Amino acid sequence: MAHNLNAAITALLYTVGEDGIEAEQLISSLNIDEATLAEAMASLSLPGLTVQKYGNTYVLTTEKEMEPYIESLILNKVSTKLSQASMEVLAIIAYNQPVTRSDIELIRGIASDGPVKTLIAKGLVEPKQQPDVRGQQLYTTDLFLNVFGLNHLDDLPTTDEETEEIESFFSNLVNQKGQNNI
């Protein structure tokens, strides 16, 4: 029973994801009592993973020792080259956020779904649905700031600066990250 219970707990924690699951819901879903849950959680062994308890909520997380591997994965995910179109779209989003896909297409004069999807997949841009706006609003992420070595969006060159300086800024940042590898 303990093995099946551990498997069931693992499956439930995996299913609920980063939101976690409250102890009462685990107890109810597994048809066990609080003492059994506490015992099962204490004996749960998941290589590379751990269960954190925040208040009354259990969340499946990675062990601290796995951080270098996860960081490497994230950096590799964004280390592939961005196309010129993706760089243009990224600049439009960075300077005009929040912005919709149609706004981007209006500015560029060409369909931009591909570059937008690429930027979202690389974690540089995230879509957010606003209740008062019809389309998704696109924003840059903290990863964008990290990749480009910025502390805040205010650190982006302003349009008051020379165009050459803005181009130099992006060129230098891209080259710092490995010859246009983002």
Describe the protein's architecture and organization:
It is a single chain. The longest helix has 15 residues, at 2-16. Helix content is 52%, strand content 13%. The protein contains 9 helices and 5 strands, in the order αβααββααααββαα. It folds into 2 domains: 2-62, Arc Repressor Mutant, subunit A, CATH 1.10.10; 74-176, Arc Repressor Mutant, subunit A (Orthogonal Bundle), CATH 1.10.10. The chain has helices at residues 2-16, 23-30, 34-43, 67-77, 84-96, 101-108, 113-121, 142-147, 163-176, and strands spanning 21-22, 49-54, 57-62, 125-129, 136-140. The protein has 182 residues and is α+β, with helices and mostly antiparallel strands. The strands form 2 sheets. Strands 1-3-2 form a 3-stranded antiparallel β-sheet. A two-stranded antiparallel sheet has the order 4-5. Strand 4 and strand 5 (136-140) form a beta hairpin.
The gyration radius over C-alpha positions equals 22 Å
Tell me the distance between the termini: 49 Å
Largest sheet composition: 3 strands, antiparallel
Low-pLDDT runs of 5+ residues are 175-182
CATH class of the largest domain: Mainly Alpha
When the domains are counted, the total is 2
Tell me the β content: 5-15%
Helix and strand layout, with pairings?
Blueprint: H1 2-16, E1 21-22, H2 23-30, H3 34-43, E2 49-54, E3 57-62, H4 67-77, H5 84-96, H6 101-108, H7 113-121, E4 125-129, E5 136-140, H8 142-147, H9 163-176
Helix pairs in contact: 5-7
